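Quick check before the chapter quiz. The format below is the same one you will see on the exam, so make sure you can read both the input and the output lines.
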Amino acid sequence: DGDEPLKPSARFSEVAVLARTGGRALAALALALFLIHKNAVLAASLPAPRPPPETRLLRRFYTADLWCIARHVAELLAAVVLLGTRCYC
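Here is the expected output.
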């Protein structure tokens, strides 16, 4: 009765595989949104001393703060370097 070890069912392993692929898809979606946001901010804000864009959508991503623009550039560069080394290695 209680002496036999429990064997994982095929159903459990199927759920584990689906959870793993779902987690990867969620991570890929979050990364894509991160990169789109960084590119939108930089497209709306660079070159740095410029007036806000006339387009309502780009005005939403515009920032005149140079430190904020520098942070976005650094984060985008770090993401590109990390993803590049991951793809290369």
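If your answer matched, good. The helical segments are 10-45, 56-61, 66-88.
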